Amino acid sequence: QLMLSRDVNSLYWMSRYIERAENTARLVDVNLQLMLDASNLDDSAIAGYWTPILESTGDEELFAKLYPKLSGRTATEFLVFHPDNANSILSSITQARENARTVRDQITAELWEEINRLYLFINSPRARDMWRQSPFEFFQEVKSSSLLLQGLTGATVMRNEGWYFTQIGRYLERADKTSRILDVRHASLTPGYVATQTDALGWSAVLRSCSAWDGYKALHGGNIEPGRVAEFLLFSEDFPRSARF
């Protein structure tokens, strides 16, 4: 039985938007933790932390239209909760849920219930309260739900055309995000760049943004070399978030 192209399209985007929400959650979470380690952060330094994140999502122009000033508060509000930012966590989950709703008969009850639960959470006052009190816990909620949805897809969904398109959506989004993070990091380097000890923190943040820190460390130990980081994230045959994988 062949699936309708609109159903396949909805399954593809449902999966892709869930992956996008998880990736954005990890990216913002890592950046906030990186800033905790920094000292004497003036406006310029704060912009230096957030501009690459906005560039990696391709939304710097929209941000400039919506906010007069780049700060930690405005950047995180834009990336997490802004409804006009199509790539915000709120928008991604909302669009994932809308796509899931249109193919309700093609997905399992378990999958629908978890997507719906995540959607209701992100739109609830509890999400805002959690965000204000503990961003780490908030991001953990988003990431855990995304991983649970992947597990439910693997454990409950028939291996038909629809399942394959959910995989395509997830892995294309993942490869796109990993390459964008690396691209932005590479663009910040000057000709003749030589990595310093301070840079190691930035490169380890790149790895953490891709959930790659443990995988990289298992292969190369704690020695952070930019070339090896790039090679691992682009060409690893075994790491599930590398571009090649």
Structure description:
The chain is mainly α and 245 residues long. The protein contains twelve helices and no strands. The chain has helices spanning 5-36, 43-57, 60-66, 72-80, 89-102, 109-122, 125-133, 135-156, 161-187, 197-209, 213-220, 226-235. α1 (5-36) runs antiparallel to α10 (197-209), α5 (89-102) packs antiparallel against α6 (109-122) and α7 packs across α8 (135-156). It starts with a helix and ends in a 10-residue tail after the last helix.
Key descriptive features of the protein:
12 helices, mainly alpha, 0% strand, 245 residues, globular, single chain
| Average pLDDT for all residues | 91
Oligomer state equals single chain
Distance between the termini: 30 Å
Number of strands: 0
Largest sheet: none
What's the tally of helices?
A: 12
Please estimate the helix content. Answer: over 70%
Compute the CA-based radius of gyration: 19 Å
Beta-strand residue fraction: under 5%
Low-confidence runs of at least 5 consecutive residues: none
Structural class: mainly alpha
Shape: globular
What series of H and E elements makes up the topology? HHHHHHHHHHHH
